[in-house]
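Hi there. Long-time user, first ticket. I'm pasting a complex I've been working with (about 885 residues overall). I'd like to know whether the download I got is complete or cut off, because the file seemed smaller than I expected. Thanks.
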Amino acid sequence: MVKNIVNASGNSKWLSLAGKWITLLLTLVIVQVLISANIINDYIFSTLVTIGVNIILAVSLNLITGFTGQFSLGHAGFMSIGAYTCAIITLRYSTVFGFVGGVIAGAVFAAIVGFFVGLPTLRLKGDYLAIATIGMAEIIKILFRNVLEDITNGAAGLSEIPQFNNWIWLFVFTAGTVILISNFIKSSHGRACISIREDEIAAEAMGISSTKYKVIAFVTGAFFAGIAGALYSSYFYYISPDLFGFQKSIDILVIVVLGGMGSISGSIISAILLALISTYLQSFPELKMIIYGVLLVVIMLFRPQGIMGSKELSLSLLKKWTEGIKGRNGGAA
Amino acid sequence: MERFLQQIINGISLGSIYALIALGYTMVYGIIKLINFAHGDVYMIGAYVGYFCMTTLKLGFFPSLLISMIVCALLGVTIEKVAYKPLRNATRIAVLITAIGVSLVIEYGTMFFVKPDPRSYPLLTGFMAKSYHLGNLVFSSHQILIISITIVLMILLQFIVKKTRIGKAMRAVSLDRDAAQLMGISVDRTISFTFLVGSALAGAAGILVGIYYNSINPLMGVMPGLRAFVAAVFGGIGLIPGAMIGGYFIGLVEVMVSGYGNSMYRDAVVFAILIIILIVKPSGLLGKETREKV
Amino acid sequence: MPILSVNKLSKSFGGLMAVSNVSMELEQGELVGLIGPNGAGKTTVFNLLTGMYQPTSGIITLYRDQKEEQIQGLKPYTICKKGIARTFQNIRLFRDLTVLDNVRIAMNKNVKYGLLSSFFHSRSYSDEEKEMLDNSIHLLEILKLDHKKDELAKNLPYGEQRQLEIIRALATNPCILLLDEPAAGMNPAETAQLTEMIGWIRENFKLTILLIEHDMSLVMKICERIYVLDYGMVIAEGTPAEIKSNKRVIEAYLGEEM
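Hi, the file is complete. Here it is re-exported in full:
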């Protein structure tokens, strides 16, 4: 794995790549140790799961909405497909293999639905697409609540789902999602998606099939949302159709908007932030939604690019910020 | 056969409500190309204001209706000034997100202050409480009230839009904002007026629903709001006759699905209609195709 | 040897005939001008050639690799893949992306590595990315915009934005280049530079160029042949000298400087 990787600026950055892998490994090990020593108790760990799941949801939605510019308000629908698929499979086959199979099956089903949803609706623009995606998610919810009642237990939901999710799986899937989607963005196909956001007509004139790439973004986003759903149900052991409604889709949207549409590190930062706020405000659900609402309005009015805009967190960016702050404080230096 | 006709009556009553709400959506979309997510919540506020007037203030129905409409009109104008006007030149996604934010604030703000439990409207008395029979068909006075008030309001709206100067201004601004401005039309005032009228109609719908279904809760605007939006799109978003036709269509569809099928599938059918319309003819029943100029 | 032939092309919008029975032929390597008063339908012709509009009737034939193929009604990205590239009258750059990315995106159609490689950054990914990067920088170098490769497109001065539009179109590796008013908004010095550039790229990239322009100094100087459009119809065709003295053309422009 340690080979000469040349990035966009042409510098040899194998050292930074090795550095990234070491950081990941260290995080994985250190947190696992803390968990085993019970310093990280169940309460803290459940917050970690929420963060992980939200990161996957936010980054996958960001791919569709932030990077490709397709406004999707039904992301919770894809999550629910992953959640239910994995739950149903692990309730039958309560082994680790069942779990992994469940996660993969959940992701694949979500992707398939994403494909059939995406193909017709991605001809729509902006607001119309948003409403269509809301409609799709509602239809999925109704499917789980009524049509497929026999396997999903309807409105009562599924409980006592085997809790196969643990720190290692959570970390692997979360980090994996972030890495894979970041990789995609930095490829020619990822750039094609971005060009569609920038100017769809120009992109088509340059040989990019906008339908093809919109569907790719949608299906990929749906796939990872399915993984998030599976991870969710395999830890929080109870799911019901109402958990995955419009409110959940909004929750995810808020994370993406706050972090910056078009910034993966932004989504990660705001996922952490909002998971903490959400846990803190657990006993005041109305207050939390009011704050979310105000947050959306305020962000759009005063800082529509969110925390990170479309930039990514990197050492050079941190350097620029600190230099900027030093410059202001230092006066006429 | 009678059952069918009865359902038609029910469908027209429900359709009137959707038509009133859909009109607000369509007028706002026509003039600033915004799907006002908060519109369904203005309707909810109308229901609560009506409730407040009739229970705490012990006012009669018609004064309450008037107050509902006025309060909602003011609410609509305020929302526009605070949240939408600053974003007039922003991307469509930005305004849409803001509208979602406003909607959340209204819904959960109401829930916070008024508690999420449903409330019951007081029953109407006197001639308002009677039912009328035609053969075996039943017209409740509520239904007659809803249908007649809706017709009156729609006639009033047509008059405003077709015969007054401000109505002409509304049509001008929705066709070409810049040209309208160059002709001396105050775009800001016209847009505010549009919100005023649309929200007043939603307020009326709210109180009418309160006396019809009797129960109100802070999230009551979400589903009807979405359904009314489907109605507006079905009829042709941005077109007033479209909203009227769409409203009645969706009302009838809903009643038929509940009556003859399974009420569980009600929403699925409505959303399926939406998806189909958006794919087959996004400009709606009465709409015309437009194309981006390259 | 013809490379593109247009046969009785028509486009109507509702009742309005924007383009009416237009026939044109481009020989390989030619530099042809398309002129006419505003609203004559020139950009509509471009949009028809590039697949943005479906023609109401008529045939567009592309001759490439010893084959001929009808391309009317195909999607824009398909037509681009077949070798026709264009610039836009109103500059449609990817404004929030860098100059380099604008160019690289135009190379997407020739990319060989697939989705799996993009997720896992395989060897084929890194090799081809390096190649694309080198090719993009090289292209920017020979067209003198490489010093601004990391600049956001929206921050470029107007003249350089127009230049980038052309470079981006070239990055798609076309055989035919359609330029839509490339000199719009330029001063005489910039126009002279552009004129030189167009001649130069025709030579060095072995292109056939069809050019819409209002700036007659540019048109008369470099076009070998000119088609004149008015009210959607071809009213004249010939060399610059012939067009200059054509009565119908003069009438159509009614007193404009030629």
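A couple of notes from our side: Residues 1-12 of chain A have pLDDT under 50 and may be disordered. Chain A touches chain B through 40 residues (CB under 8 Å).
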